[in-house]
């Protein structure tokens, strides 16, 4: 009306329209297009092609639409000067302010939520990792010289409990290994010191005054005996330390042939009649006698258990039986000697450990521990049963 009806209204009638037009918000833009789509009037320069929208406005008479945050109102206006299209462009300050306020609220809410989340996460993590920190504290205070090496924790029925249990199992093995090493050092130092002290003592006595040839000969024999004992201990120690390396050298061997070689080797000290060998395997199963392993180590291990059976049974028969059990070779060595107590049987695989009833027998307590270690490295299952003053039976199960 400000543009099209100006010439048809009086000054008095046009004045309110003019005042209303000039009071329009600066955010509002008004454009008037003629029939050809050209701009007849506008409050600001139009840089957009509105031809498509103008046609829709002509068709519908009235059209409201928006682009992003800008709103448009189109009106088809008929006048005596022609047909025009009026297009008003404006932004909504209320929506803009509400949007800014909403963004501010969201930003503040996000910051507050993050602070709360950080606080809760920190608090929950402290609660969740409290058992772990407790275990770490216990681990830092562990002392190998104090027993038992165990961690205390509350049952939680989850993965953490499984981890702590696994750690406790590992500590049991570490404690056992440490105790064995400690005893090994104590026993080995004691066993090495004994023959050395005897050698030194014999030589000091012989040097105190002149002696005849018989005395020197006797002293030399004792020194030689102690030196041989010292050599045997050192050889066994070297063997024990190199077991893991030597067991990798495997070859095909016959177990029965090794047993006959051992009996032949022991014949000078123990008569062959004391060894009763029973081969309870049919010829079709002779392949069970074949075993892939380190011949030297297996010979040493079997020699130790057969010699011990003969040594600790005095003049009694040593029974050696080779049989088949569940398609596996089974070797059983039995004697009727001094036997092993239940207490000593618990330490049978400990180096330098000797039973209380073996003081009258020569030895250093390394043979059986080496033999059992060799069986273990060859995955040969063993079991030892014994009764004091009655018998000792060692049973070996060879893998297929």
UniProtKB/TrEMBL annotation:
Top-level taxonomic group: Bacteria
Keyword Transmembrane helix set for record: yes
Entry keyword set: Kinase, Membrane, Phosphoprotein, Transferase, Transmembrane, Transmembrane helix
Histidine kinase domain boundaries: 187-400
Annotated InterPro entries: HATPase_dom, His_kinase_dom, HisK_dim/P_dom, TCS_sensor_his_kinase
Keyword set includes Cytoplasm: no
Regions crossing the membrane: 102-124
Reactions it catalyzes: ATP + protein L-histidine = ADP + protein N-phospho-L-histidine
One Pfam assignment: HisKA
Listed EC numbers: 2.7.13.3
GO MF, one annotated term: kinase activity
Stated name of the protein: histidine kinase
The organism of origin for this protein: Mesonia aestuariivivens
